Amino acid sequence: MTVTVVVIGTDATAEVLWLDRAELSSRLNDLVGGLYDVVSLGRAGDAWVNDEGLYLCEPNPAATIVAWRRQHVEDPERLSPPLFGPVVLTGGVDSRGDTVSLSTEEAEQVMVEVRQLAVSRRAMARLRGAAETYQLSFR
Length: 139
What we know:
The protein is of the alpha+beta class. The chain has helices spanning 24-32, 53-56, 61-71, 104-118, 121-136; strands at residues 2-8, 14-20, 36-40, 46-50, 87-90. Strand 3 (36-40) and strand 4 (46-50) form a beta hairpin.
């Protein structure tokens, strides 16, 4: 059984991967570059990040914007914090707490959004600066 995920790099690249459920934990460690943690995006799924990414990794503006768009939150105070390092998006969890796949449509939509963001250098630079300020407040 596989889990469909999208990996978003700090350089605004993205890739769809199909991960073997039995190896999901070790693959997540590899993909985020260390121990992982999960950021819930509510009904929009989960974002898996490096557990120490805030301290060790550079901001990931593309993943942050994609995560915020997927959350569909009207109150900006309820958005997830900026994301750092490589980010792995999944479809959330099922009733047993097992990680589920992004649908084909969700994965395609994320890929389109990341491609669009990659050419929007101004927006990416602005968010990168804000994320770096946020990051400095924890050092």
